Amino acid sequence: MGFTIGRAADLLPFPASDTHKYARGKVVVVAGSPRYPGAAVLAARAAQRMGAGYVEAVVSAPAVLPVRIAGPSLVVSDRGEWDPPVLESGPGRPLAVLVGCGFDAAGDAGECGRLLRLALDRAACPVVVDGGALGLAACDEMRRALRLRAGRGVATVLTPHAGEAALLAEAAGLPGDFLSDPPWRFCERLAQAYSAIVCLKGPDTFVSDGSETYAIDQGGPELAKAGTGDVLAGMAAALSAQRQGDVLCAVTTAALLHAEAGRLAADRRTSIGVIPEDVIDELGSAIQRVASFR
Ligand SMILES: NC(=O)C1=CN([C@@H]2O[C@H](COP(=O)(O)OP(=O)(O)OC[C@H]3O[C@@H](n4cnc5c(N)ncnc54)[C@H](O)[C@@H]3O)[C@@H](O)[C@H]2O)[C@@H](O)CC1
Ligand SMILES: Nc1ncnc2c1ncn2[C@@H]1O[C@H](COP(=O)(O)OP(=O)(O)O)[C@@H](O)[C@H]1O
């Protein structure tokens, strides 16, 4: 249940001296919407800071230029034209897809559903499903798609907060008294029901693949601010790309580093003042601190 800092330290993706950008992992971030463009920037930035060598942001048409300006090192494209071939990690070229941060499932359900479906069907690599895409994943059709992915041996990660987790539980027909389970058990059962790795976020965060479950309790209330979940999702996608053989531990390591970065940001800004951008800024110091346990 506990996840030691030493274990996280061993998973840190320090680059080899002869590496190149693709070898460090590519992350495709399909995120944002006309209503929430900022979520795409937070997630993509966090993926870069978590070591991904190449981050592509696939965003709504009106967001293309603003996202390019916010992140000149991001490769930005229009989601309306997103129709990728099979997205596969090549030899020495790991890949992961993040889908859903800043999706506006209420205003934009058709297009968001198309993008989620494309990500799940075409990505023969880890897919992290976050934000507005979680509500769209809460149905039998998507559960079947996740089961198929698990059967093909590719990991899917769901990152719900308590509200999104309740939607997923209800759609899977989990018992009405389900939320009275201890949260680690709830997380484990969600993972089983969705054939996925579930990262159940909250004051304590639990990460489960349905049989093994880890708890991260280092996070503080400075993280309770809109946008920190987008940061965690970007980090989880980057580490999942780089550690494809152990996505459960990659996501747990992301949650641990996220908590550490929040703490370091609070030391500087107080738990009142921290904003999600500060968590991204402190990620390097969090990595250094965790690396000292190697
Ligand atoms: N800068 C941005 O562009 C941001 C975009 N965001 C995105 O905005 C989209 C929609 O977010 P909304 O703010 O509308 O929806 P929320 O995800 O905040 O809320 C959806 C529902 O869940 C409930 N809920 C939220 N957190 C909960 C918790 N911890 N425990 C129990 N219930 C909880 C809410 O009351 C609401 O009914 C998502 O795709 C999200 O990723 C947010 O991440 C915030 C920042
Ligand atoms: N009181 C708290 N203590 C520790 N961590 C928290 C607390 N409240 C929220 N968090 C963390 O902050 C993040 C919030 O994610 P989420 O609710 O998805 O936000 P958003 O969608 O606005 O980005 C999660 O990683 C969660 O674990």
Task: Give the key terms.
alpha/beta, globular, binds ligand NAX, 294 residues, 12 helices, 9-stranded mixed β-sheet, UDP-N-acetylmuramoyl-L-alanine:D-glutamate ligase, single chain, 11 strands, binds adenosine-5'-diphosphate
Written account of the structure:
Strand 1 (26-30), helix 2 and strand 2 form a beta-alpha-beta unit. The chain has 294 residues and is an alpha/beta fold. The strands form 2 sheets. Strands 3-2-1-5-7-8-9-10-11 form a 9-stranded mixed sheet, sandwiched between helices. The protein has a two-stranded parallel sheet with strand order 4-6. The protein is globular. Helix 1 crosses helix 10 (247-273). The two termini are 20 Å apart. It has a single domain (5-291), classed as 3-Layer(aba) Sandwich (UDP-N-acetylmuramoyl-L-alanine:D-glutamate ligase), CATH 3.40.1190. The protein has helices at 5-11, 38-49, 64-70, 109-122, 132-137, 140-151, 162-171, 183-194, 228-242, 247-273, 276-281, 283-291; strands spanning 26-30, 54-59, 75-78, 87-88, 95-99, 123-124, 127-129, 156-158, 197-200, 205-208, 213-216. 47% of the residues lie in helices and 14% in strands. Residues 131, 161, 201-203, 205, 219-221, 223-224, 226-230, 232, 258 line the site of adenosine-5'-diphosphate (ADP). Adenosine-5'-diphosphate (ADP) is lined by residues 131, 161, 201-203, 205, 219-221, 223-224, 226-230, 232, 258. GO terms for molecular function: ADP-dependent NAD(P)H-hydrate dehydratase activity; ATP binding; NAD(P)HX epimerase activity. Belongs to the NnrD/CARKD family. Keywords: ATP-binding, Lyase, NAD, NADP, Nucleotide-binding. It is an enzyme of class 4 (lyase).
